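Dear colleague,

Thank you for sharing your sequence with our group. We've completed the structure prediction you requested, and as agreed, I am returning the results in plain text so they can be pasted directly into your records. Please verify that the sequence below matches your submission; if there's any discrepancy, let me know and we will rerun it promptly.
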Amino acid sequence: MSAKTLQERITEAHERCSRHLADANEAEERGDMDKAQKLYEKSGYWRDRYNKLVGDGA
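Please find the predicted structure tokens below.
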């Protein structure tokens, strides 16, 4: 298996961030605040990774 290209890693980070954020919003709407918080944290991790990959991070 070959290493992922930069563009593939950027796309993966964006997709995972978006998916975790959507899932967190759904969990919050259901009132499952513990699950929502964990998913918001995961979304934040992938958002930070995305920003680092595109050069917007510290």
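Summary note from our side: The mean pLDDT is 95.

Kind regards,
the structure core
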